[in-house]
## 1
Amino acid sequence: MDEPEEPLCSARGCSSPALWKVLWNNPRIHTPERRKTWLACSEHRSSLASFLEARGFLREIEPFEDHDLN
């Protein structure tokens, strides 16, 4: 049986392991309590968050743990 793949950073072209959850929503189409998730490595955490923050979408950043996906 194959090992499950390690969750990776959501930044384009990045293959580093995910260490952070960047939680966001688009208030024009999502309810206030809804959270979408991008995963981030330490290197891309701030650039992904800045992209979302500039659009008013960033809600929170939390540490990511593999059990978060279950």
## 2
Amino acid sequence: MKIGIIGLGAIGGSFAAGLRAAGYEEIYGVDIDEETVKTAEKSGMIKEGSLSAEGFLPDLDVLLLSLYPSQIAPFIEKYHALFKAGVVITDVTGVKTAIIEQVAEVLPDIADFVFAHPMRGSEKKGIIGADHTRFIGANALITPTSKNKEKNIQLIENLYREIGFTKITRVSPELHDEQIAYVSQLMHALSVAVVNSNQASEDTLTFAGNSFQELTRIADINGELWSELFLNNRSALLKSIEQLETELDKLKQTLKTADEEKLKDLFSKATAQRRHWY
């Protein structure tokens, strides 16, 4: 099986390394950065790399697009004439509904696009952040469409399992976006808001413990990518932000009124929910 990966950054590079570690020999990579391609080849992540996709596409059985959301549909539109008949395409994009709609307009009948989302990213950019061991024990989401063939969905699921993912769940694109707005995008929004809240000083880290470090870690963010993710899922994310604001208002009101019992109730509710989750 010949597998091509477009985009050899932290995620694409991790997939390449994971597939090679799983025994797949014919892994081909494409990236716009020449040093990235050279690094991927020298490290053994890929069998062969290129700055252009044209030479690889006609022979690929599986094509993984590790691209920004805005690049997915344009890539399909530009290169669809080169696709091998029966090629299975997949992605790693953190939003689905908008991207699926865009791809549907340009995807040729000879290709089957199985949309997927590995739930183990990295705040690091570029191939230097590639580490396939992060996928071990991780979750992944598949968002099937009515056009997908079952055998192709299973193919992508099996590839995920082979590189270490242990829980692979099929969900609708709408449910995916709704839940991702809460469990991922809202967390990034909160982290950014905390860091930008203008309360920091030169001595801030003198007072900071693990909770501050953990909460603010994801504020070290790829602004270009996350702007696209936020905007492509803005309705669901706005709903999550508004729900958070409601809960913050509850906490603020208990402080204004010095309502100790209500404050304890809010803490108890959160503790019970967190322990139920984990």
## 3
Amino acid sequence: MLLAIDTSSLVLSCALAEEGKLVTEWTQQKKLTHSEQLIPCMDLMLKEVGVSKKEITGIAVAKGPGSFTGLRIGLATAKMTSYIWNVPLVGVDTLEALTWNMYGAQAFILPLLDAQKNNVYAALYGAFNEMWQEKPEVAASIDSVIESAVKHGGPVIAVGECADKYKDKLVSAGILLAPPHSRCSRAGSLAMAAISKLKNGMADDPLTLLPNYIRRSEAEVLWEKQHADS
């Protein structure tokens, strides 16, 4: 059984899944930080469904892009758990995991996450009889992302927290919005993507797996400016 963790956005989500079956999923958004919620949520979820750590055969984690702090919390927990429990670990790009919310939609999927300063993390995936990445991940303005998606042709369906934030612009451009329950990050979708990767031998080393930030944090940029002449 696979344990999946997604702390890449405002949503905290954990799930247990097997091939072709979602056993359970806990998805919530509270004012508490992910560092306060994650371990208790995992423990309670396992207890509620009567699953012991001995039954966990793999760990999946969202590796970014997304919240810098959230990603570090999720990755640290997943890497530690994988190492201690001695089970395979697989990191899944957050935008790819979001796309699995709309598996089989017969459309192109536009995952959108907040990159701050009116920018978004975005990519474009095909979700037809198979799934594939149509355009690479970027950190760019929402206007340029919409322009690129519209030029590509459709139908295009937007998912992710910024599908809500920029819904007026997206709808005006002819881009569809996923149903509300399919817009947020979900560990169940992450698990389905991870199971597919594990079947193809795409496990990661818990000692070397790194977050996919796409861009540097504001703190790193500021530090570099302050020490440019050092």
